[in-house]
Amino acid sequence: MPARRHPTARQMRLGIELRRLREAAGLKATEAANLLGTTSVQISQIESGIAGVSEQRVRRLAANYACEEAELIDALSAMATDRTRGWWEEYRGQLPTPFLDLAELEHHSTYRSDAEFMIIPGLLQTEDYARAVFSSRVPGLPEEELDLRVRHRMQRKIILLGSAPTAYQVVIHEAALRIRVGDRATSRAQLAWLLELSEADHITVRVIPFELDGFGGNWNAMMLAGGALPRLDTGTRDAPDGVGFIDSEAQLHVLRTLFRKLEGMSIDATHSRDLIHALSREL
Q1: Helices 143-155 and 97-108, axial angle in degrees (round to 10)
Q2: Distance (Å, rounded) from C-alpha 124 to C-alpha 221?
Q3: What's the rounded Cα separation, in Å, for the pair 272 and 265?
Q4: Cis amide bond preceding 7, omega within 30
Q5: Buried-exposed string 13-40: b where 16+ CB fall within 10 A, e elsewhere
Q6: Reduced DSSP (H G I as helix, E B as strand, rest coil) percent helix, strand, coil of the chain, to 5
Q7: How far is CA 31 from the centre of its chain?
């Protein structure tokens, strides 16, 4: 298979998982190459996502790595043979790659969880609210790119509003509900849309109220996307140096623990809707 110039995050994740299997087997790249009758350079390219790998080779590698997890092997084989060219591809070369990688990740996710403390999560934003969020960027974006980012964000909603919606759980701090992003009309419309979405069976919205004791305030926005297996989940957590995908088991364990803590801090879905409704009437 020809080398890729710009592998996607999903393609790189496949390579990472194959490397982890090799290292768990205690094999070097040269030894893995001998098993396939190829070179260590080719193994390195596969493990970095630069080179594709066939289902046959995935299964041969797994067998030689003494991996007996049938579900994992099937999931990795599916990743290797996936040729999806989703709607996000129309933005390639126009928006930063992480935008495309996030849309691809969401497309393949078995569930999505978000936690936000200062703004409404992107998947739940109205067009006007999203435009206000992107407009606050410093330095400002050219109008053309601003339009592209807003349109991309609106198209991401397909995982919630499409024919086969993804289960979605979100925890939002009351601060995010009260902060006016844009003008009063934008904020009012955003809360109304949030209320409408929260009525869907596959969407659970929970709110952390201001009255909660011991919140601490040292939380960062987080996301968790379900993979075919829990070990193939992917997360993100905002940090001063930007946001990157999290895929190590230790970090995923931390994210899952943090989400459980946040759920314990929040009020249930019914009372959360009541609070959102009350706040919308104040605007």
Answers
A1: 10
A2: 14
A3: 12
A4: no
A5: bbbbbbbbbbeeeebebeebbebeeeee
A6: 55, 10, 35
A7: 34
Q: Look up the pTM and report it.
A: 0.92
Taking only the tens place, the pLDDT of each residue in 218-237 is 688 999 999 999 999 999 98
Number of helices (H), then strands (E), belonging to the chain: the values are: 13, 5
Strand partners, 168: 112, 203
> Are residues 210 and 174 in contact, defined by beta-carbon separation less than 8 angstroms?
yes
CA 198 to each of CA 5, 39, 192, 224: distance values in angstroms, whole numbers, following the listed order: 41, 53, 10, 19
CA distance 153 to 140: 18
pLDDT digits (tens, 9 = 90+) for 135-156: 998 899 999 999 999 999 999 9
Amino acid at 28: K
Tell the residue number behind the tokens 């104040």, with chain if given.
Answer: 282
User: How far is 258 from 270, CA to CA, in rounded Å?
Assistant: 22
- Residue 92 bridge partners (DSSP): 95
* Whether 168 contacts 204, CB under 8 Å: yes
The CA distance from 4 to 115, in Å, is 34
Mean pLDDT score across all residues of the chain: 93
Q: Please give the DSSP secondary-structure letter assigned to residue 90.
A: G
DSSP-based three-state secondary structure for 96: coil
Number of residues that this document lists for the chain: 283
CA distances from 192 to 134, 170, 183, 216 (A): 21, 16, 15, 29
Sign, CA dihedral 130-6-9-239, equals negative
